[in-house]
Every structure is written in structure tokens, then in C-alpha cells.
From TrEMBL:
It catalyses: L-kynurenine + H2O = anthranilate + L-alanine + H(+); 3-hydroxy-L-kynurenine + H2O = 3-hydroxyanthranilate + L-alanine + H(+). GO terms for cellular component: cytoplasm. Belongs to the kynureninase family. This is Kynureninase. It holds the Pfam family KYNU_C. Pathway: Cofactor biosynthesis; NAD(+) biosynthesis; quinolinate from L-kynurenine: step 2/3; Amino-acid degradation; L-kynurenine degradation; L-alanine and anthranilate from L-kynurenine: step 1/1. Catalyzes the cleavage of L-kynurenine (L-Kyn) and L-3-hydroxykynurenine (L-3OHKyn) into anthranilic acid (AA) and 3-hydroxyanthranilic acid (3-OHAA), respectively. Keywords: Hydrolase, Pyridine nucleotide biosynthesis, Pyridoxal phosphate. Its cofactor is pyridoxal 5'-phosphate.
Length: 397
């Protein structure tokens, strides 16, 4: 049984702040500064370049990949960490397309994160060959999986609304039509139980700075199903994905398995921060996390909808169909969110009109939920949001 009171004590939570934005950036684990300091002082400072061997920096991407793999149902040796999520989406989509060279269509949905769609547009445009990105409404995806589709590329949990796709069912339908699947777990990993093996996903990618609390700029991960590991073609043929990086051969030979999905030099300091964050997950049962997330989400939805008739729930009412976030439509959503933030309740805004709140049981409890709901109600019902300073758009919303 997970002790969420204990996990809350593992984070630095600023005084006077109720943090409901872990779906954008997780807060600082208390152990992170010491772990990063160790990398700076004991490893980089004292070992310098010998840290690649003595501190085993070179093996960190695989080691952390296996730790994330345990959270997403991936077998050992099928997940690796490094680079950014955009690069990992690019790699996975390119490798998936190469497995279906006779097909021309990548299917995605309007709930996918725009960056994933931009990556697909850029890749397909560069490859030519009359490739097409077909984007449909989330609820229409299943109806558009046909034998035209080369790759089904989806984000499991919609970044705006929190709507959750059925990974297993859609993957099964895609496979039945002969397509390959690429799943983005940016809003899933660390938010709810994920089983890429049980769902038979072909590729999966995700970031580590949201629910996994790895810090701003924390590296991404990629999973490749075992049956594709030796066939997946890494379009970014990076030095550290070579079969023998220190042989310095002129021609590229891909490493065996998931190691071929490594590209550039891993971000060692960021990986140290991520390692400290992952230690928290050794104390967490994902099913307990999911149960607690639903309890807190339902409490939040009930409190806000009862007190704020001007807000409309944008997330699914059925908790089984949601990730670990709750979103509301409001015609002045940006200004309202700024007013809420000014009261110490941290959520965020997503265009065109969504107020979004991450429900993260590792460091939120009933008192936090109740306090946040009460503050939101005061802002909305008093029209506190209708002040000029709250309508000035910042660079990051």
C-alpha cells in the first residue's frame, strides 16, 4: 500500500503554493540537489572525463531506461533515455514508416500534441514519396484505421482535455489492419498504469519532466518492442547508437536492440536529477496511484462544478476515460488562470479556452484539492479575473 503522506514529504513544495501543474512540470524532489551536486562535485569535478567509465555515465541511458520501463510495462533492455521528446517522436515515426514501406498514410488525431504533428509534417515532407498525415477527431480514430494506414501515431492522454485513448484496443485494430503503432506517453508515464507489452505497442516515447519529476529539460525516453528491435532503422544515425562507437568507423552500423536509438551525448547532469526523481517511484504502486488520482479528481470536479456554474468540464466525466488531469472551458480562461495563480493555486491555460489542472497524488491531498477548488470559485464568482493585469499574455501560458 503506497503511503502518499510519505511521498509528499519527498518534494519541495513552496510555502503558500498549491501545485496542480505537474502535468507540465513536476516539482523538485528533495533528494535532487544532493544527487546533482554529487555529479558536479564528486564526478565531473574530480573525475573529469574519466567519469564516463568510473561513474558509468556511458551506461546511464540504458540504466534509467530500464527504470522507466518498469513503470510502463516494458521488458528490460527495450527502453532507453536521452535526447528530447521531439527527437524520440522523429526516430519512432521514421522507424515505423520504414517497417511499412508500401503504405503512405500516418493517422493521428486533433488531440495529439502539436509538436508531434509538426514532427510528422516535417518528416513526411522530407521523405516525399506522396506520404500523408491524416488527422481526425479523437473519437473517430478507430473508424479511420484501414489497410491504407502505415502508422497510427497517438498521444495516449489528450494534453488539453485529459481524454484517454484505449491503447490496447486501438493497437489491436491497427495490427489487424497491418499498421504499426507509435504511442506518446508524455501524459501517461507516472500518471497512470501503462502496459506497453500487454497492449502490444510497437513504439512508445515520452518525456520525464512532467509526472516523472525529472526537472526542466529532463531527457525523453523511447521504447521499441522486442520483435522490432533488430529491424528498427534509426534515421538519426548518431555516434552513440553505433555498434562500436569507439572504433570510429567511417560507416554507420546500428547497435543491437534499443541501443541503436541512442543519438548524441547524454545529458549527464539532467540524468542525475532524473535518477533522484525515479527513486521516489520505488515506493509507489501504480494501481494505488491510479485509485488515488481518481479519488482526488472526482473530488475536485465535484467541488468546482458545484461552485462554478460558469465553468464547463472539458474532461470526460467517466474517470476511466481520463488521465490524471482535469480541464474546464471558460470564455476568459487565460485571465481566470492568472488570477488563480496569483492566489497561489498553480494550474495552466491551453488555447483556446481551457483551464487545466494536474492531479498528482504523490504530493497532493484532500486539503490541497479543497483549498484549490475554493480559491477557483472565489476568482470565478467574484469576477476577479476581469482585471487588466490578468489579461496580459505572458510568453508561456
Amino acid at each position: 500500500m503506497t503511503d502518499f503522506t510519505a511521498t509528499k514529504r519527498m518534494f519541495h513544495l513552496p510555502e503558500g503554493m498549491t501545485y496542480l501543474d505537474g502535468n507540465s512540470l513536476g516539482p523538485l524532489p528533495l533528494a535532487t540537489p544532493q544527487r546533482v551536486g554529487q555529479t558536479l562535485q564528486d564526478e565531473w569535478a574530480e573525475m573529469v572525463i574519466t567519469g564516463w567509465n568510473r561513474a558509468e555515465w556511458i551506461h546511464q541511458p540504458a540504466r534509467l531506461g530500464d527504470r522507466i520501463g518498469r513503470l510502463i510495462g516494458a521488458p528490460e533492455g527495450t527502453c532507453v533515455v536521452g535526447d528530447t521528446l521531439s527527437i524520440k517522436v522523429f526516430q519512432a515515426l521514421a522507424a515505423a514508416l520504414a517497417l511499412r514501406p508500401d503504405r503512405k498514410v500516418v493517422l493521428s488525431d486533433t488531440g495529439n500534441f502539436p509538436s508531434d504533428l509538426y514532427i510528422a509534417q516535417g518528416l513526411l515532407g522530407a521523405l516525399g514519396q506522396d506520404l500523408e498525415l491524416r488527422v481526425v477527431a479523437p473519437e473517430e480514430v478507430a473508424d479511420h484505421i484501414t489497410d491504407e494506414i502505415a502508422v497510427l501515431m497517438l498521444t495516449e492522454v489528450d494534453y488539453r482535455t485529459g481524454r484517454k485513448h484505449d491503447m490496447a484496443a486501438l493497437t489491436a485494430k491497427a495490427h489487424g489492419a497491418g499498421a504499426i503503432t507509435v504511442w506518446d506517453l508524455a501524459h501517461s508515464a507516472g500518471a497512470l498504469p501503462v502496459d506497453v507489452t500487454g497492449a502490444k505497442a510497437d513504439f512508445a516515447v515520452g518525456c520525464t519532466y512532467k509526472f516523472l519529476n525529472g526537472g526542466p529539460g529532463a531527457p525523453a525516453f523511447i521504447f521499441v518492442a522486442p520483435q522490432h528491435a533488430m529491424q528498427a532503422r534509426p534515421i538519426l544515425a548518431g555516434w552513440l547508437g553505433h555498434a562500436a562507437p569507439f572504433a570510429f568507423e567511417a560507416a554507420y552500423r546500428p547497435a543491437d536492440g534499443i541501443a541503436r536509438m541512442r543519438v548524441g551525448t547524454p545529458p549527464i547532469i539532467q540524468m542525475a536529477a532524473l535518477e533522484a526523481a525515479l527513486n521516489i517511484w520505488d515506493h509507489v504502486d501504480m494501481n494505488d496511484l491510479r485509485t488515488r488520482s481518481i479519488e482526488l479528481s472526482e473530488r475536485f470536479i465535484h467541488a468546482v462544478t458545484q461552485a462554478c456554474p460558469d465553468l464547463t468540464l472539458a474532461s470526460p466525466t467517466d474517470p476511466a476515460q481520463r488521465g490524471s488531469q482535469v480541464s474546464f472551458h471558460f470564455h476568459e480562461g487565460y485571465a481566470a488562470m492568472q488570477a488563480v495563480i496569483a492566489r497561489g493555486i498553480i494550474g495552466d491555460f491551453r488555447a483556446p479556452d481551457i483551464m487545466r489542472f494536474g492531479i498528482t497524488p504523490l504530493y497532493l491531498d484532500e486539503a490541497d484539492i479543497d483549498h484549490a477548488a475554493a480559491q477557483i470559485a472565489e476568482v470565478i464568482n467574484s469576477k476577479e479575473w476581469d482585471r487588466p493585469e490578468f489579461k496580459v499574455r505572458a510568453a508561456v501560458t
